[in-house]
Amino acid sequence: MNKRASQIVMTALASTLMIGAITLTRSDTLLPGSMGPAEQVNENSPRPNEPSSASPPGPGPNGTAAKIPSVTTIYVSPSTFSARIQGYGETVPRHHLSLSAEVSGRVVRLASKLESGSRFGEGEVLLNLDDTAYQQALASAQHDLASAEVELLEEELNARQARQEWQRSGLEGKPDSPLVLHEPQLKAAKAKVAKYQRSVSLARSDLAKTQIRAPFDALLINRSVQPGSYVQNGTPLAELYSTDVASVSIPLSDMQWALLPDTAQIINEKTIVQLFSSDAERSWEGRIARVEQHVDKQNRQRSLVVEVAHPLDQEPPLYPSTFVTAEIPGKQVAGLWRLPASALTQDGKIWYVDNAGQLVSETTEIVFSSGNFIYVQPPSGLTTASVVVYPLSSYLPGMQVAQRPAEKKP
Q1: What is the pLDDT of residues 40-67, one digit of tens each?
Q2: Residue 3: inside a domain, yes or no?
Q3: 180, 379, 382, 386: which sits with the fewest CB atoms below 10 Å from its CB?
């Protein structure tokens, strides 16, 4: 009986709780068009999806407020800088020679190192031609000279005896013919000796030319003969570059010339110029040697010539035909901005932030550049500005931005 009573009590309690929950739910349910307490707000409050007057401007597409883009800027003002003129050129040897034979003959010997890339000192033998015929020619010329010298001695003796005989004859004045005193005979004998002396000199010269020597300290670029080749006067034998000096002709524009000191001064002082390889990993030091006094027909510019002494002995070596970038020291230039090279756009503009926090673009002209920096004339009407370091192609004039100063100043 007690168990049955307990079940009845529990069933009654569960029914009571269910009825209370249903009553509570109905009391919180709104009728159509009615308003709950949480929704009874002032009529001036914004409706859903409408921005509040206190919200940031420019809602995004998903209803969130758009952020103002931030830009990295650098503050610049005019200053005075030493100009660095940058130019480009190719190294060439002082002398570029196609060495040719001056006599005919067969090649009988080549120097053991007569290969491309070898270096030779001035006067060093490169190859030899067969000299048999030239030895014979020299011997013959020497024989002819000796005979002519004997004839000259005989004529000198005859002339001396003729003068003595004329004096002993007691005759006054000079003989009717100069042949009496052997004057023409003596003159002819002297001329004959001079002729054969020149023949001997020529024969010696031809014999010496069978030994082909380097005319200067040289680098062999290529050779055109082999052992046993027969060459004639004018036959190309080898191509040589001199190694004492390398020259670099640097074309400069009129604006670049205006940044240089007086040309006579830089030549007399042999101003030092820094040369860099195209990858900027190698460098050399040269000196200004001269200024060309003509305008090139192709680029319509005058050139400054820089020389590097003993280029192949430099560390690293400076090889012929190397393209280099030259940095030439110029004079002091006032009133320039120094900007990171990244601040200049491809169309030659810079962007800066005005006092209202908006972007402004200006076209500018580079006066000179050095390393990772450019030096420009400030735009008209500006002296100082906060220039954008990394301008984007998406920038528009008047765009509102927030500035973020660059960590490092140039």
Answers
A1: 333 333 333 333 333 344 455 555 455 8
A2: no
A3: 180
CB 336 within 8 A of CB 78: yes
Q: Which of 302, 330, 358 is the last residue of a domain?
A: 330
For residue 78, give every residue at least 6 positions away whose Cβ sits within 8 Å of its Cβ, in sequence order, or none: 334, 335, 336, 337, 378, 383, 384
Do 123 and 221 belong together in one domain?
yes
Count of structural domains, the chain: 4
Is the domain of 237 the same as that of 100? yes
Dump pLDDT digits (tens) for 290-301. 999 899 888 899
Which distant-in-sequence residues (6+ apart) come within 8 Å of 292 by Cβ?
A: 249, 302, 303, 304, 305
Q: Which residues pair with 302 in a beta bridge?
A: 252
Q: What tokens appear for 351 in the block?
A: 């962007």
**pTM of whole model > 0.85?**
no
Same domain, 326 and 395: no
